Amino acid sequence: MSETPNVVSHVIASIGGKAVRFEIPRTHAALGRLELDVGSALEVWRRLTEEKWTAADVLAVLRASHPAPPDRHQPPMPLRRLDGSLADAVVRTQGVDPHVVEALVQRQPMAMWAALAGLVMTGFLFGLDEDKAVFSVPS
Questions:
Q1: Are 30 and 23 a contacting pair, CB within 8 Å?
Q2: Does 36 map to a domain?
Q3: Which domain holds residue 112?
Q4: Residue-wise pLDDT tens digits, 42-70
């Protein structure tokens, strides 16, 4: 009897000799942010897997899934309370520092990163067999 492979939602990419885990959290908030950038998650998956993607598709998926610290903070900003008074609030921005992903994609042609983004979206939407959830970036 053969063993059933583990199904995972992430992709381990070998980049510069380091293993980097790309994964879009399976939360409503993560899906909402991604869909604000690129529209329907299913449609962006189709564009990526049918090679009809745009650079914006690729960058949005990589930003949503890159493991750089996601909890950047903006300076406090005034918010109006329901009673009309003002309060300072710290606004958390989601996603990674865009410069991290931009620096990463400049190393190789965009089409190579589109393949990784397609795998990431497949893992997010459907899951991937653990042995297929790997990606290697040429040196």
A1: no
A2: yes
A3: 7-69+81-136
A4: 999 999 999 999 999 999 999 889 886 54
Question: What predicted TM-score, i.e. pTM, was given to this entire model?
Answer: 0.76
- The HSE-up count of residue 42 (CA atoms within 13 Å, CB side) is 0
Q: Count how many domains the chain has.
A: 1
CA dist 37 and 67 (Å) reads: 18
Q: What are phi and psi of 83, to 5 degrees?
A: -80, 0
Structural domain includes residue 1:
no
For residue 20, what are the contacts with CB-CB under 8 A and spacing of at least 6?
12, 13, 14, 66, 67
Nearest in space to 134 (alpha carbons), one of 121, 122, 118, 116: 116
- The pLDDT tens digits of the residues spanning 61-96 come to 998 898 865 444 444 445 555 666 655 444 433 445
Q: Are strands 134-136 and 11-15 parallel, antiparallel or unpaired?
A: parallel
Rounded percentage of the chain residues whose pLDDT exceeds 90 = 45
Contacts of 126 (CB under 8 A, 6+ apart): none
Under DSSP, the state recorded for 115 is H
Q: What are the backbone angles phi and psi of residue 121, rounded to the nearest 5°?
A: -65, -35
